[in-house]
Amino acid sequence: MISVTADTFRLAEVFTISRGSRTEAKVLTVRVLRGAVAGWGECVPYARYGESLESVTAQIEGLPANISREDLQYALPPGAARNAVDCALWDLEAKAAGKRVWELAGLTAPGPEVTCYTLSLAEPAAMQASAAKNAHRPILKIKLGTPDDMPRLEAVRAGAPKAKIVVDANEGWSAEVYSDLAPHLLRLGVAMVEQPLPASEDEALLGLNRPVPVCADESCHDRKSLPGLKGKYDLVNIKLDKTGGLTEALALRQQALVEGYGVMVGCMVGSSLAMAPATLVAQGAAYTDLDGPLLLAQDRESPLKYADGMVYPPEAELWG
């Protein structure tokens, strides 16, 4: 049996990016029950990809109750619906076998990874205060993509002079804007820029001098995306809600590394259940961005451990 329910997690404070603000995380929780064993997973439908709670629920409810993880890869396209079911099936398989998912996947035992912490988009003074409050964190991620990006970036650097900074432009720039800003990004110690151009316009990155490395987010979903990224990007951001689950995420990670891309492992704003499978993909990644639970006012029982700027792999009580 496959069941799906909608759950809401309040955020600790309003979270804003260039596309809008939110005060809660709305997720779907999938449970797969077979005999006396149950597995579960979580996804976050994303309007940017034409998803809603209703549309993703319909996709999940349309699946055969006994579908295998292998058949699932062909039954649904990459996206949130396949992600939640895929991760639930991994959890189910692990519980049935009395093993951990990393063992079933042929991986080495996972350890903690340094994670980015995302600062909400706000006025420069507020972002400087937020940066100062979180200056102890090793990597701060800044949501930009507005006409007033430089004052915000300057403010964050003033608030956290020692932190590594990565920037997520959320498709808000052009090639010209990137080129104009690049010297200032270097001056302020920005390590990487995520998705500066709209995915539909990223041909402009071909042949462009990239003194600050560029990471594909909206332009990269699964392995089929890789041929279209050549010459444009230096890294790829792997999110399970884009790949359609852990199965494809692991395959994408392997193929991206073979093709010479750096790997970032990211997330939507969700609970520890959504992050848990991604911690396996994040092992050894250039950047880990699994801070979703840190933005919540509430989380799942047996949540992931966050300490000293790191995210730890899940205990079996949570997932896998």
UniProtKB/TrEMBL annotation:
Binds 1 Mg(2+) ion per subunit. Pfam families: MR_MLE_C, MR_MLE_N. SMART domains: MR_MLE. Its EC number is 5.1.1.-. It comes from the Bacteria. The keyword Secreted does not apply. Keywords: Isomerase, Magnesium, Metal-binding. Residues 124-215 form the Mandelate racemase/muconate lactonizing enzyme C-terminal domain. GO terms for molecular function: metal ion binding; racemase and epimerase activity, acting on amino acids and derivatives. It is an enzyme of class 5 (isomerase). The active site is at residues 143, 239. NCBIfam families: racemase_DgcA. This is Dipeptide epimerase. The lineage of its organism: Bacteria, Pseudomonadati, Pseudomonadota, Alphaproteobacteria, Rhodobacterales.
